[in-house]
């Protein structure tokens, strides 16, 4: 059990014969908290890792009960045998393997929809490190839209470690990501702009600066189309229905009629 900031815990589990794909979820039961309740959680580990993990935000009775059952409310380190029994059902859901079928992809995660991309981004990076020449995927544009990053501090940490590893391998360009704080506007953000000259972002600690408001999708699509002429670009979303409509329309209007031109293929998998 790993405790992350802002009352989020990560459960890392091992089970013989457990096989998962990116973008899948499991049902979890903790008999010490409730003998009947099962709750679904998206897997945040990559298939390449030797454990499977979920991230749980403490926001209600059951999660509070699990938090306490795992001894997270105590200061001292908990021995493994003191941890509660956990029952797991799954994994379920469609695998998001389609991400690996494109050379260029746009990944969009909104709010809690960012969770499955932890699995996707980790898996892409493992595949890249293991055998970069056979990996079709060469470029990821990742958009993370959230009201504030507090709930997903752990996700910013994950991006930070990916950023560092990519720089070590001199391939910082493999992943371009943009973080949009949708609950803010520029006027509220002006006191952060004072620190804008600093090398790392004040809010996330990442090299990529946080943006305020919502993306101008038309500009984003046009820019990406300009950089990758004549290619098929996969667009993947995990987020609300309204955003799905917007991205679908942009994918159609920015694809060329000529089969040799650029084509955006919208995949609304509910990761």
TrEMBL record:
A GO molecular-function annotation: superoxide-generating NAD(P)H oxidase activity
Reactions catalysed according to its record: NADPH + 2 O2 = 2 superoxide + NADP(+) + H(+)
Topology within the bilayer: Multi-pass membrane protein
Stored SUPFAM superfamilies: Ferredoxin reductase-like, C-terminal NADP-linked domain, Riboflavin synthase domain-like
Alphabetized UniProt keyword annotations: Cell membrane, Electron transport, FAD, Flavoprotein, Glycoprotein, Heme, Ion channel, Ion transport, Iron, Isopeptide bond, Membrane, Metal-binding, NADP, Oxidoreductase, Phosphoprotein, Transmembrane, Transmembrane helix, Transport, Ubl conjugation, Voltage-gated channel
Location of the protein in the cell: Cell membrane
GO cellular component: monoatomic ion channel complex; NADPH oxidase complex
GO terms of biological process kind: defense response; monoatomic ion transmembrane transport; superoxide anion generation
FAD-binding FR-type domain sequence ranges: 1-98
Keyword rRNA processing tagged: no
Major subcellular site: membrane
Cofactor(s) of this protein: FAD
Primary role: Catalytic subunit of the phagocyte NADPH oxidase complex that mediates the transfer of electrons from cytosolic NADPH to O2 to produce the superoxide anion (O2(-)). In the activated complex, electrons are first transferred from NADPH to flavin adenine dinucleotide (FAD) and subsequently transferred via two heme molecules to molecular oxygen, producing superoxide through an outer-sphere reaction.
Protein name according to UniProt: NADPH oxidase 2
Gene: Cybb_1
């Amino acid at each position: 059990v790993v405790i992350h900031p802002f009352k989020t815990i990560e459960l890392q589990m091992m089970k013989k014969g457990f096989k998962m794909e990116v973008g899948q979820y499991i049902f979890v039961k903790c008999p010490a908290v409730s003998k009947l309740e099962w709750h679904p959680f998206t897997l945040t580990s990559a298939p390449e890792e030797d454990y499977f993990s979920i991230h749980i935000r403490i926001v209600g009775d059951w999660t509070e009960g699990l938090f306490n059952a795992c001894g997270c409310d105590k200061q001292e380190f908990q021995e493994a045998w003191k941890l509660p029994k956990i029952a797991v059902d799954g994994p379920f859901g469609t695998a998001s393997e389609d991400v690996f079928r494109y050379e260029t992809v746009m990944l969009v995660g909104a709010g809690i929809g960012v969770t499955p991309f932890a699995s996707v981004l980790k898996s892409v990076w493992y595949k890249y490190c293991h055998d970069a020449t056979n990996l079709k995927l060469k470029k990821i544009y990742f958009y993370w839209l959230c009201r504030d990053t507090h709930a997903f501090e752990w996700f910013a940490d994950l991006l930070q470690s990916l950023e560092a590893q990519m720089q070590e391998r001199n391939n910082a360009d493999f992943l371009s990501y943009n973080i949009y704080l949708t609950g803010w506007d520029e006027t509220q953000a002006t006191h952060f702009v004072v620190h804008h000259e600093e090398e790392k972002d004040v809010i996330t600690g990442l090299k990529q600066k946080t943006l305020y408001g919502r993306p101008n999708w038309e500009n984003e699509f046009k820019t990406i189309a300009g950089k990758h002429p004549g290619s098929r670009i996969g667009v993947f979303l995990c987020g609300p229905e309204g955003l799905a409509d917007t991205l679908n329309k942009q994918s159609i209007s920015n694809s060329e009629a000529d089969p040799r031109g650029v084509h955006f293929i919208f995949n609304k998998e509910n990761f």
